[in-house]
Recover the amino acids of this structure.
């Protein structure tokens, strides 16, 4: 297979992408042309908020071509539409290796143990005879819990440092028979882990309906009884443990709300925070609850604090 790569500025990226799709390409992605340089520009929107711009200052628009396509014909049509500067130095063709992409993707996610108590098993390793089965983990006194997960459904595989940190906290600090709120549940991995680690009840919340569906699906696959909904459906009340693995921006905005969800003597656990943001986040939560850095991993920090009785 081949890719058509075009270079353009911020204002042209979206219209160029739309034009390429109209011309019949299989897919289009927009990349930062300055990535891995000192001019690399972060671009993302906080959960629930759209980014101010939808492209970088300098972009690569990459279109995956059908086998029977003629790139020169596409270039001629794009020039006629006058969407962007498509002179000879602003586009190129590159080959795409003919790989088994499903197998390569699955190879990135193998079984992973977090701490001493959590074993995460991707769905394609479900029948691996070298791993303890669900029955083995449920019928022994080892305390090990097995979580089967499809990493493709939503964010949260356990491999990201922020998820790993929250799982580690839950595996070592979660009180038995506690009531847990996972705010920003993603794939549901933290909510499922809390339930299997001994929580009496678990509420999982996300602003993304697909994340809620993924959590419900994964919970069913793991026989973990929990309630996953959108934020508007969250009832009033407090929890023994509130965990939120999101990003620093929304965590600051939600400081008051999250703290007020923590029961007296309960715990608030936050991740999605870079090391340099630690004090900034501690200060943001100080009016309601004292947080401390509990652990760090690969430049990310997990903060935890207990609400006074």
């Amino acid at each position: 297979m081949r890719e058509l790569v075009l270079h353009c500025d911020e204002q042209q990226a979206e219209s160029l992408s739309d034009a390429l799709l109209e011309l019949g390409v299989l897919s289009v992605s927009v990349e930062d042309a300055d990535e891995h340089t000192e001019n690399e520009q972060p671009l993302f929107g906080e959960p629930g908020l759209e980014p101010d711009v939808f492209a970088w200052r300098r972009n690569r628009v990459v279109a995956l071509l059908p086998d029977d396509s003629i790139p020169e014909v596409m270039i001629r049509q794009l020039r006629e539409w006058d969407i962007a500067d498509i002179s000879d130095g602003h586009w190129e063709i590159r080959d795409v290796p003919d790989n088994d992409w499903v197998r390569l993707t699955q190879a990135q996610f193998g079984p992973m143990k977090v701490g001493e108590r959590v074993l995460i098993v991707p769905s394609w390793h479900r029948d691996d005879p070298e791993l303890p089965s669900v029955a083995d983990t449920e019928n022994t006194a080892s305390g090990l819990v097995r979580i089967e997960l499809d990493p493709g459904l939503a964010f949260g595989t356990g491999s990201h440092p922020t998820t790993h940190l929250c799982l580690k906290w839950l595996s070592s600090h979660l009180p038995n028979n506690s009531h847990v709120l996972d705010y920003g549940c993603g794939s549901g991995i933290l909510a499922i882990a809390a339930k299997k680690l001994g929580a009496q009840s678990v509420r999982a919340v996300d602003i993304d309906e697909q994340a809620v569906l993924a959590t419900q699906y994964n919970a069913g696959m793991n026989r973990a009884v929990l309630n996953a909904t959108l934020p508007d459906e969250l009832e009033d009340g407090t929890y023994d443990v509130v965990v939120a693995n999101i990003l620093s921006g929304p965590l600051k905005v939600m400081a008051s709300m999250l703290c007020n969800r923590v029961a007296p003597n309960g715990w608030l656990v936050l991740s999605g925070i870079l090391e340099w943001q630690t004090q900034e986040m501690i200060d943001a939560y100080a009016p309601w609850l004292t947080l401390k850095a509990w652990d760090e991993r690969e430049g990310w920090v997990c903060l935890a604090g207990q609400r006074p009785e």
The radius of gyration is 23 Å. The first strand starts at residue 2 and ends at 9. Confidence is low (pLDDT under 50) at residues 45-50.
